[in-house]
């Protein structure tokens, strides 16, 4: 038997095994659905679906371990997010922003205030997070999608421009981010309650702003360079 035929048989067997796994998953899902219907499971809040489902099919001791694992993972994620937000505020916004605006480093008197800014920002972000948690929507999933579409509206323009325009200007990327996030907040708050539609429109507006600002900067920089060369 040739090597190619042996490899073809192995690929066929792996595909059959994959289809069998999918079939088993579908059968398990159908049995779980029948069990939920038979038990008459009614959940008041969508976020309680997983705990109620685990309580339905597993003993309480196992459910406690699973919920503790989920909470532990959530704590580590929140910790990483707090540190990341603090680093962005202290390093990217404060340190680099003060250098760009005032044309000097924030270490001008021999003092580094970025560490202090980072510590204060952690407290500010913590207070904002607690206020959001206390006034949470009916489903936390909707809050997650609000955040995802907010990030996407800001980075869609620079990402697309980075693919099609390798020499895109960073000022255009910053302007695109501000337009995308700003339009997302305005559209979602006042005009469209659907988070997906608001995210799509704001991402489109940020992308258009990216190309327009980049074209304007490139056009006038070329004209200025030509004028200097001609003079």
Keywords:
231 residues, mainly alpha, extended
Q: If you had to describe this structure to a student in words, what would you say it looks like?
A:
The protein contains seven helices and no strands. With 231 residues, the chain is mainly alpha-helical. It folds into three domains: 1-40; 42-136, no CATH class; 138-231, no CATH class. Helix 5 runs parallel beside helix 7 (195-230). The chain is extended and about 65 Å long. The termini are far apart. 14% of the residues are buried.
What fraction of residues sit in β-strands?
Answer: under 5%
What is the number of E strands? Answer: 0
pLDDT < 50 stretches: none
* N to C succession of SSEs: HHHHHHH
Number of domains: 3
Structural class: mainly alpha
What's the shape?
extended
Q: What kind of sheet is the major sheet? A: none
Round the mean pLDDT to the nearest integer and report it: 76
Helix content estimate? over 70%
Rg, Å, rounded = 26 Å
The termini sit apart by: 78 Å
- How many DSSP H or I helices? 7
Brief write-up:
The protein has helices at residues 3-39, 49-57, 60-102, 114-134, 140-164, 170-191, 195-230. α3 (60-102) crosses α4 (114-134) and α5 packs parallel to α7.
Set out the fold topology.
Layout: H1 3-39, H2 49-57, H3 60-102, H4 114-134, H5 140-164, H6 170-191, H7 195-230
